[in-house]
Amino acid sequence: MTIKNKQVLLANRPHGWVQESDFNIVETDVPAIKDGEVLVKNLYLSLDPYMRGRMNEGKSYAASMQINDVMVGGTVGVVVESKNPAFQVDDNVLGYFGWQLYGISDGKGLQKINVTDQIPVSAYLGVLGMPGLTAWVGLISIGQPKAGETVVVSAASGAVGSVVGQLAKARGCRVVGIAGGKTKCEYVVKELGFDSCVDYKAGHLVEDLTAATPDGIDVYFENVGGEILEAVLDRLNAHARIPLCGFVSQYNATQPHAVRNFGALLINRVKLQGFIVGEHADLFPQALQELGQLVASGQLKYRETIAEGIDDAPRAFIGMLKGENQGKQLVKLA
């Protein structure tokens, strides 16, 4: 019997905010696998801000998607058929099959994952996946936090920011989050253990950030850009460090925010380093060892926002870009 696949394709290149009409959902037959290949049924799909950049044309750290390509994305799933001796039926695997129900792989880049009562399969797309690794690499390798320093992280309730703050607290830092709305700020402080959280939607970002960072800022983990970056620059201490992870506030902007006080980087001799986590694979074993231990013990807390079914992926993706999710945004596929 032929297995039916459902895929979400890039239909248009967005100008400004992504629209559901920028996607096309199609149904196709899953081809028979060849020797050396495996067929994977995807269980969860990861939705991440970087995908917005891949929808554009132009130079970036990764190739642009082409019209009618399957939308890119990380997945976790289960092997349902195998002609590859390295993988058995029912193996749980982490892959990069994109926005579709099934994927075929020759085994390269496909990673077996260990699912336990403490570590569910979905965690490998979040706290133990690319977001968790991004948080660890950016904070520990680039930010290099020291006990007693003040660490600020934007998008603090998100998949990356929430891990950054908890790792910094574990290293004895004062941690201040920046998030949108009272509910997210309460989560960051009361559940994740941050010392403070600034609600950038409250209307007095500069004043609230100043009050929350009386001793200035030593490490700023940048996820957002725009007016938040501008406010942070005025609070930086000498020799501060900025791991530059993303600029989510600018991804859909038709008129990017011009930061007025970039000279603060020179005045304070600040280290600003953009990074792509995939270029730091040598650090993954160390990062995963710490993250895995913290998750298994319950010390590292995380949340997931889960959309149901691949048909809901476009709506969930747009909502994630608008900050409607809390923690990691996933789509449950099966």
UniProtKB/TrEMBL annotation:
Gene3D superfamilies: Medium-chain alcohol dehydrogenases, catalytic domain (3.90.180.10), NAD(P)-binding Rossmann-like Domain (3.40.50.720). Keywords: Oxidoreductase. InterPro entries: ADH-like_C, ADH_N_2, ER, GroES-like_sf, MDR_fam, NAD(P)-bd_dom_sf. SMART domains: PKS_ER. The keyword Oxidoreductase applies. Pfam families: ADH_N_2, ADH_zinc_N. GO terms for molecular function: oxidoreductase activity, acting on the CH-CH group of donors, NAD or NADP as acceptor. Residues 38-331 form the Enoyl reductase (ER) domain. PANTHER family: PROSTAGLANDIN REDUCTASE, PROSTAGLANDIN REDUCTASE 1. This is NADP-dependent oxidoreductase.
